[in-house]
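Suppose a classmate hands you a notebook page containing two proteins, each written out with its sequence and a corresponding row of structure tokens. How would you begin to make sense of it? This section walks through that situation. The first entry is reproduced here exactly as it would appear on such a page.
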Amino acid sequence: MKFEESDLIELAATIRPTIETHNVSPELQDSLLSDVIFQVATLIDEKQGSSLHEGVFELLDNVSPIESDYLVCDLDIHLEDGKVFETNVLKSNIEIPEGLILNLEVLLELRDIFELDDEIDIESKFRAIKIKSLIFKPWEKEPETHSPEISSISDLAAFINKVAKQWV
């Protein structure tokens, strides 16, 4: 198997979220990423006799930054019957609320993963559960507890988005 420039671009895309998650200052992120990819390319070149490292900086300069997803907060959903459901709220959940709604439907056992394309009366199932509280746990911040009045899965997703948006 021979490594190519596209492999380095893909590697950069997978490393970028890690750099962002570990609170590397935005001014240093691209430089750190370029240096890491350069070192990897140099190692590959030594093993396969190629010259990938020579074009790494230009290659990464010509590639637009990859929009990355990241963890906004952890969320615990406490029901009145004592059940607790835990999930992660990602940046993509806030940008694409339909994804958050589907995640909540499966998480709250309103839909099985084998029923993703099926028509199901989610709202009737949702009315059967009673949410006691939502505990948001953002990265390196104090948790926030909310006890909202929520009557639909869409209301729940909208409330989660409203609270979690402050940490994006």
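The notebook's second entry, a different protein, reads as follows.
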Amino acid sequence: MHRRKALQWIGQGSLLPFVAVLPKFPVRSATIDLRDVRERINEYFASLLSPARPYGVYGTVSPQETDLYASCDVAIARHIMGESLTDTLTDLQKQQWIHHINSYQVAEDGSYTERFGHSRLHANGMVIGALGVLGGRQRFPVRLYKPFDTVREVVPWLEQIDWAKQWSASHLFWGGIHCYSLSSACTDAWRETVFAWLNDNLDEKTGWWRKDMRYTDRHQPLGGSVHILPMYQHHDRPFPYPERVIDSVLALQLPNGRWLDRPDPKVTRQHVMHYLELDALYALHYMGTLVPGYRKEAIGQAVHRYADLVVNYWHDPQSGWRDQHPHRILSMVGTFGLLQKLLPDGFVDDIAWTDIFSDIRLYDTRAVEVL
């Protein structure tokens, strides 16, 4: 039975979280109390609110400058940390937050402005996640799906993606193909066409898209693939090469424990919780649920090496994590959520965290769309 049928999503206002048997590894050294993390991050988020503005109008690194992404990031991050915003917020707070997000929507095509440098489809995905956890709907119909919303058009659209530079190009898939696949307008034939193309174009030697591709740099296949893999997870479709993805992700880890090999020369203290690290943990976690016994020790060692960096970073008063835009804080929150799944004895909380890719509630297009 497909995931969408199991969830009985037709006519439902929300989707249940994805649940799987998780590979667990024993804690090796220091731990992080995620209750403390929640408290400190929520305090930081509260500092980005101004009493002179409606609720949900979050600043970027101070209350003075606001944008669409800051308000979406905080909604998603608070949800990932286990907060049910539809229960904890007043009706007025929810209405103001939803109204603020939708104030960025353009009537002509349903796209959103103030995109923090991202594409229109990436912003669409962010809004779907934020409105979904706030219990809201988009203000206007989204026309961004039109170039690929038929069986005839979707394959040429997939072919034209810049797969050599897919870390950013795959954002179009994530906020477009994936979100549309969970829309009430999507058909079974369309989904079958997409999965057939994806399977045919997987590299059986690496588990990456696409076959025989020369990437612009080492980060591209990992950063790109994780924007596609959740579609398999959320529709409960078999992924052909989980072992190869595990091999590829482990091979990409650097000696220092990170996956991102792009230091910023402008800063003396590197923020070690980047989106590419989140991507690596998600790939190892999800693929590990598909083949639980495969290279378990190697996965455990890789996760521990990175977790040591996170522990030191979080406990370092000079880390400067508060100086980042909420979109970067969101990567931290999602990383903590995945580390809790992989190392539950090392990242402790009485609340189960989620992450930006596994949690199907962040992709509830049907609940937020306006047709």
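A careful reader of the second entry would note: The first strand starts at residue 32 and ends at 33.
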